[in-house]
Amino acid sequence: MFSRDETPPLQASRVQPGLAIVPTLPRVLIIVRQFYPWVGGAERTAQRLAARLIQVGLDVRIVTGWWFRGTPQQEIIASVPIFRNFTCWNMFDLRGLRKLAGYVYIVSLLAYLWDRRRQYDVIHVHLLSYPAWPAVIAGRWLGKKVVIRPGNSGPYSDILRMRQSDLLPGQRYLLPTVLRAGCFIALSPEIEAELCQAGVPPERIVSIPNGVELGAASKTSYSLNDAVTIVYVGRLHPSKGLGVLLSAFAQAAQTRPQLRWRLVIVGEGVLRPELEAQAANLGLADAVQFVGQVQEVSPHLAQGDIFVLPSLSEGISNALLEAMAHGLPCVATRIGGNTTLIRDGETGLLVALASTEALAAALTRLVDDQALRERLGRRARALVEADFGMDQVAQRYRELYTALANADRGSTNISWKAET
Fold first, then answer.
1. pLDDT reading at 246 higher than 80
2. Fewest CB atoms within 10 Å of the CB: 140, 179, 199, 222?
């Protein structure tokens, strides 16, 4: 089905002198806990990376949990083969057994990895969570290379959440094994620092950012819409700071009453009823649009004047990357991940964490200054084109997978240099 004849180049700086390798393209298994019909940052990243790697000749498939009734166990989505492992939760209306389903998923995933052991060379786990445990165990048993990509740093970091066992009771006891994986991807310097603090040797950490498709047309006009349109894309989750966003939006609108204002919130999550109630209490019921989960965010970004990301915790936000790729002027909190993408006053505006006043001031500043909106939007697009295109990111993963899969053929010792 997929060609494995191409031989990719290896970056000489990443392989120790004297290492003799004749590379062959690896077969890659991407593990992500949830997948379509659930759509989030990790799911979008896994889908886009897998599709692009398949385009350049790798054999890649995604393995996930079978969480939703009505979804097939196997299918192909946008050229990517998908397999869903049994979880029991939501399959037979057993909604009260969600925690048990996590343990069922660990067992079924481990069985899958053993049963299909001759069909892959590298296991890549998206997010540092409990599905990484069977991946590391299988990697040890079978001699497979395991790559883990944590998704967040800060108060909602993957490591902290695993220590707190917030997804699965007893999850913290799995963490020491997970941290023994052979390679970790650091999306940001903050994630790299947290991995090192958790005991991961620096030589096992590689810095590769998220990537974004560059096909979308960039914004050409920076005149405001008839109604000033602020766009947010992401989960409706406590980590996203959406309560602050609603308050800041109300404050900004009050300071410029001569303008019509509109806030478009794209995404779904547990906080939606609470946020809808807050919008109503602030008198914003007609000004705030809750779009819900969508398969394609580009139409909403294309209609926006300003993009805002008020998160309390991030790795590198796919939503922020997409907004920058559209040439939108962006406002984001000054946290790890966001500061990798935004240089304050150059490629966007950074504001203090959880500050209604700072966020409102940034929004009004952009509304008042068309030249600033255009300068930030165009520089954001240029930065993404230069450093965060999916082609470049996929090539770096291709090189990483290839070197890992071929390491034992010439030497048992490969040193990885984290690029910053």
1. yes
2. 199
Burial 19-58 (b: 16+ CB within 10 A, else e): bebebbbbbbbbbbbbbbebbbbbbbbbbbbbbbbbebbb
Per-residue pLDDT tens over the stretch 310-363:
999 888 999 999 999 999 999 999 998 899 999 999 999 999 999 999 999 999
Residues in CB range of 257: below 8 A, 6 or more apart: none
Tens of pLDDT, residue by residue over 27-40, are 999 999 999 888 77
- Looking at per-residue pLDDT, the higher value among 86 and 208 belongs to 208
DSSP letters along 33-82, please?
Answer: SS-TTS--HHHHHHHHHHHHHHHTT-EEEEEEEE-STT--SEEEETTEEE
State how far the Cα of 146 lies from the Cα of 376, in Å rounded to an integer: 39
Q: Which tokens in the block code for residue 41?
A: 């940052």
Residues 347, 396, single domain; the answer is no
CATH number of the domain that residue 121 is part of? 3.40.50.2000
* Element (DSSP H or E) covering residue 126: strand 122-126
- What is the model's pLDDT at position 102? 87
Residue 30 lies in a domain: yes
Shared domain for 335 and 396, answered yes or no, is no
- Answer for the pair 43, 80: CB distance below 8 angstroms, yes or no: no
Residue 303 in contact with residue 266, Cβ under 8 Å? no
The confidence band for 412, taking pLDDT boundaries of 50, 70 and 90, is very low
Domain that holds residue 239: 227-387
pTM to 2 decimal places? 0.85
